[in-house]
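JOB MANIFEST
job_type = single_chain_structure
chain_count = 1
residues = 401
[input]
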Amino acid sequence: MKKLISVCILLSVLFVLLTACQSPGPEQDLGDTYVSESDNQYYFYLSGLLGSPITESEDAYYFEHDHYLYLRDKKTGKCIPLCNKPDCTHDEQAMNPDGSSNCNAFFSNILSLAYYQGNLYIFSTDQTIYEMDASGSTRKELLQMEENASCAMVHRGYLYLSFTDFLSSPENYSEEAMKDMGYRVERYRLDRWDGKPEMIYEKKGEFGQINTLFAYGNQVYIVGGEGHGAVIYNILDRSISDMPPGTNSYMAMAGEKLVYFEPTEGYTGEEPPEELFAAYEKERAVIADREGNIEKETEIPKTYSYLYGFDSLIAADNYIAVAFENTPREERGVRFYDQDGKFIREIKTGNDTMPVLGTDENYLFYLKRGENGEGTELWAIDLHRLDDSNLEGEPFFVPEA
């Protein structure tokens, strides 16, 4: 009898081990909505593409300033370098002759920044992915890429990276040359890191550039590709589905709906700016379901073409109109709308052509030039005060001396 029980226990242990080894990945059905601490922070996904990347945990915000990664404690407001070495000066004294630094917080430049379950994942300009404890106590190199990645994202246990062979416009490639060219998205499992990617999406023999990656719930949005819309990768059944053609632009999530602008009809790219922006004044963003199917039109004009969303709030930034000198620089601002796209108010940011980085439930973040035009500062608009007529942006990130 004892032998029989021992055999049963042994078989049970073997079954558990084999099941673990055959597990397809760490993802579980956590629900088809946003899960804090585990999901891609879709509300910041443009920050690395347009300016300095920002991310957050339950306790802190993380932001790069002058090549150093800082955290701002949400309770105290204190900003400190993300390095726990007791004798580190976090400045040029920690630099080495080869340009490296002994400070954990130092990076040559950061392209993408993500938080996932107690760790930060940093994508640097030298095409290296670093993993770092969110307290700054550990730092290790996960991956050194041999080719340049266009986007990086962390979502529900995986690091996603996109690549393209096309580095210029399509007319520069012959049909013969494109036969062996393409674009793709790979992912790496974080909990059992082996440096080996899994291909989740690939197109060969056609022009395409993946502009952005973001995720919401069980869906990963892969945005880009000449002449067609984005595609959706479902992390549960690993299927790929096409979105409508108009979705190959920057999109925002608001109230579990997508918000985006459709392509300008008849636009060739050769029109003078004044004609283009005259058309933009008449066009409005649309609200769509999670698959990109349009449900209704909003009040948001295309002159405010960069969109950001969190929960029931949509923010629209007129960066493009200012950058192309269609709107005076002193009129740079952000308009706020409810989840139905109805106008709430506008706040002037006074940040010239510096980018907006995104919005969470508390703040809208944007960059602003320092005094005398030197350096950059992180500013924020307090979203809990949108009904305050005197509301303005304020400095948010001020490193300790």
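[summary]
The longest helix spans residues 2-22.
The two ends are 72 Å apart (CA to CA).
exit_status = 0
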